[in-house]
Amino acid sequence: MPRKIFFVFVVFLLAGKCFAQSDTTRIGVYINSISDINYPERSFDLNFWIWYNYANDTNKIVEMTDFPNAKSVESALMSVVKEPGEIWCAKKVKARLKNNWDLVNFPFDKQEISLKIESVEDENKTTLIADTMNSKISSGNGLEEYNIKKYSFERTKRVYNTTFGDPRLSGASSFDLLVFKIFLERNNSWTTFFKLITGVLVAFFISLSVFFIRPIEVRFGLCVGSLFASIGNKYIVESVVPDTLKNTLMDTIHIVTFISILSIIVLSIIALVLKSSDKPKAEKKLDKIAFWSILTVYLSLNTFFIARAVLS
Prior knowledge:
Blueprint: H1 2-20, E1 23-38, E2 43-54, E3 65-66, E4 70-83, E5 86-98, E6 110-119, E7 126-130, E8 136-137, E9 146-160, E10 173-186, H2 189-208, H3 217-240, H4 249-276, H5 280-311
Parallel strand pairs: 1-7, 1-8
Antiparallel strand pairs: 1-2, 2-5, 3-6, 4-5, 6-10, 9-10
């Protein structure tokens, strides 16, 4: 009799451990399209399929998953297939997702967007596994501005410094999180870049040419005209380049141009003073040194900033 009681006790413990194990669900996604990229609102739309493979018929994972980086979600349950020991469930989802667009290097910017899938049950009850083999992106994904360089589907955890009132936990809670990352690179970057800087380059070289002009007084009109032309070009660029609080590559190029034109005006004033002092040789020497110095510094600075943006 004692042996029977002991046996029942052991079986009870083993059964308890089995029931305590978390349900395992394999989740995969197929991206149909990426659209409606909105820089000011920091969002984009994603149309995709998501499927779940699990064995436990009591598993409510389909209803117990969340998209934590979504602004809005629309979904429809499309298909459920039940086989002995395995259940497959798929649904189609359209979601507007949040994303912090990094436009500092525009138009040489590279972006990383992601779809996050999180279990709303803690990791002790539910385990998520990424179906990396079948998770892909459609070739007709609808992207025009960007080219997809690569993508990945990874499993991680999200830890909260609260238990959300769950009496089974203490201190903190941890949930499985699957992240489908997509790495983008902008198309036709150089074409877009030269379209944007043509006006400011023309304005700079017009102002630089004043070192070859006599009388000196005529220079100031050209310099001021070039300055206003470069300012106008900046306003045009800002209407094209997505708005951001950070200093972008295009902002930097315009700032370098403004400083260069201002330097030309200052040096022209010095040349005018030398002319008034009847020092023609010193005036011509200053013009020659100023021309090559400003040209070298201008090209060097812009080359550095452009190379940094392209290589980043």
